[in-house]
Task: structure prediction
Amino acid sequence: MNLSGLYAITIPSENLLQQVEAAIAGGAAVIQYREKSSDQSLRLEQALQLSRICSAADIPLIINDDIELAARVSAAGVHLGRDDIALESARRDLGDEAIIGISCYNDFDLALQAQRQGADYIAFGSFFASPTKPLAVRADKSLLQRAKQELEIPVVAIGGITTDNGKILIEAGADMLAVITALFAQADVEQASHSFVQLFSEEKQ
Result:
C-alpha cells in the first residue's frame, strides 16, 4: 500500500463521521481514529462506522493504541506509541497484512529499531507547538532528511502542522503529514483537507 499524503487524525466530535467523510472527500489518504474515552461502546460504534466509511473509500483506517479494537472492526492497522503493546505482539495479533505504525518522537534509533521489527511506517514529531500535545518533545526536520537516506519505510511528520508550515516538512522528506487541529477543527474540513493535499501535488511538480 502506498502510504503518502495527508494522514488525518480524528478529534472527539458529535459530527465525527461527517468530518471524516469531508476529509476523505478532500483527499485524505489515511484516517486514524484517536479517541481516549473510557466509553468502550462509544469507541466500538464509532470505529465500526469509520471502518465502513474507509472501506467504501478504499483508504486505510488506523486505530490509535488499541489492537483489540482494530481487530474487532477489521481496521487496516494500528498506531503504537512508546507505552503501548510491543510491535511484535501487534503483528502476531493482527497478521502480516496489517499496517503498523510506530511513534518515534525525536529518536532516530527508535525508528531504526521499528524498521528492523517490521513496522510499516514511523512517525517523528512534534515538529511545531501542538495544541493536542503541548508538552510533546520537539523534533527537528533533519530527522526527516536522515530518514529519507537511511530508512526504507514511509515517514510521517506530526505536531502542530498547518498548510503554512507543512511544505517544508515534505521538502525535508516527510511522506505523510499527520494533521489534527488544522484539519478537524476547521469550519470547512473538506477544503482544509484539499489544501493539505495540494502541498503534496506542488512538491511533485
Observations:
- The chain is about 45% helix and 20% strand.
